[in-house]
Write a structure and sequence with these properties.
rod-shaped, 11 strands, single chain, alpha+beta, about 250 residues, 4-stranded mixed sheet, Immunoglobulin-like, about 25% strand
């Protein structure tokens, strides 16, 4: 059976230099893999050590390495473990029957006891495996699926003003304008009749006697000189209503 071998080793990147000198992650793994049906997959990797301690984990040499294979919906399908070689590397062959479905799988590599919380951290290595589909095609299908599953964007209904609400608003504005016009006309009338400085309800001493006051004085039987101010006329009318003559001491 033909084997597809993919491997990225830190040693291959820097020649004869020691990988742990430049390493930040605990484990180095290969790049994403495209897997054709019928092929086994060999995954190689390397555990980085510094002063005989795994980088980040600070655990000693001599422990097992482990890989776990997950489906795209995070279901564990396979687990393999083995000792490291003398140069701290490992190599796993994953049988083709482990990839029964077309799509994306994720392989996580651990050093020491595998912990669920270490996935997607610097303490593990991970690699994507695309079975029967390329990475770009898988991403395209994933985006289309997400669009189909996304809830539709709610459409805002058009703004419609009910007829009764429009009539109510129109009536309110009409009432407001009517009151405003009435107030302005009333103030203008008072100013016209009594003048600006009319000094209260009965006018001031500087406001001429109104025609209504003159008419009332005559009807009440006043026979003296017609008063010149509205306030004087008011007092004379008040005196006549009390039974007086309507005359003042100055007459």
């Amino acid at each position: 059976m033909r084997l597809v071998l993919f491997s990225i080793l830190a040693v291959a990147m820097v020649g004869l230099m020691i990988p742990s000198v430049f390493a930040e992650n605990t484990i180095e793994l290969n790049s994403p893999i495209y897997h054709e049906s019928g092929d086994n997959i060999i995954i190689k990797g390397h555990v980085n050590f510094e002063n005989n301690k795994a980088v980040g984990l600070k655990i000693p040499t001599g422990l097992l390495s482990t890989i776990q294979v997950y489906t795209s919906n995070d279901r564990l399908v396979s687990t393999f473990s083995q000792k490291l070689t003398s140069d701290h590397s490992f190599s796993y062959t994953i049988p083709t029957d482990k990839f029964k479905e077309k799509g994306k799988y994720v392989v996580y590599a651990f050093y020491g006891p595998p912990k669920e919380t270490f996935r997607n951290t610097s303490y593990t290595g991970s690699v994507d495996i695309f079975v029967g589909i390329s990475a770009s095609e898988y991403q395209k299908q994933l985006e289309e699926k997400q669009k189909q599953e996304a809830p539709p964007t709610p459409q805002k209904p058009p703004t419609v003003i009910p007829v009764f609400k429009w009539l109510s608003d129109a009536f309110g504005w009409a009432m407001f304008l009517g009151i405003l016009i009435f107030s302005v006309v009333g103030i203008a009338y008072i100013i016209k009749v009594r003048g600006w400085d009319w000094g209260g309800t009965y006018g001031s001493w500087n406001t001429p006697t109104s025609s209504r006051q003159s008419w009332k004085l005559k009807n009440l039987g006043y026979d003296g000189p017609m008063p010149q101010s509205s306030r004087d006329a008011h007092y004379r009318i008040k005196d006549l209503l009390r039974g007086g003559s309507g005359h003042s001491d100055d007459d």
